[in-house]
């Protein structure tokens, strides 16, 4: 059984399905984390514009929670973990 690590590009996924249909696909972890962080950023921006009619602040709650999601476990305090 073959495993192939790919990124989340639709072009790469289609090429995999066409050329290696039986291979098991695994996502690159960096790509997953990057995509989740990007989506969280976009939601934070949209909500800031909807609620405050401006960009969010670095000290605002959405930014604080996003930073918690992107920190490594070693950087978190006992209360945060």
What does this entry look like structurally?
The chain is mainly alpha-helical and 81 residues long. The protein has one domain (3-75). The protein contains three helices and two strands, in the order E-H-E-H-H. It has helices spanning 10-19, 29-52, 61-70; strands at 3-6, 24-27. Helix 2 packs antiparallel against helix 3 (61-70). The mean pLDDT is 79.
Alpha-carbon distance between the two ends: 38 Å
Biggest sheet strand line-up: 1-2
List the secondary-structure elements in sequence, H or E.
EHEHH
Low-pLDDT residue intervals, each spanning 5 or more residues = none
Question: Could you state the oligomeric state of the chains shown?
Answer: single chain
Radius of gyration: 18 Å
Give the amount of beta strand, in percent: 5-15%
Rough shape?
elongated
List the domain count as a whole number. 1
Q: How many E strands?
A: 2
Decide which structural class fits the backbone.
mainly alpha
Share of helix among residues? 40-55%
Count of alpha/pi helices: 3
| Average pLDDT over all residues | 79
Taking the sheet with the most strands, its summary is:
2 strands, parallel
């Amino acid at each position: 059984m073959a495993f192939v690590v790919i990124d989340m590009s639709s072009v790469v996924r289609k090429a995999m399905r066409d050329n290696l249909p039986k291979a098991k696909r695994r996502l690159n972890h960096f790509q997953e984390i990057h995509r989740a962080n990007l989506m969280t950023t976009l939601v934070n921006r949209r909500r800031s514009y909807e609620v405050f009619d401006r960009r969010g602040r670095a000290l605002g709650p959405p930014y604080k929670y996003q930073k918690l999601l992107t920190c490594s476990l070693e950087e978190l305090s006992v209360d945060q973990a």
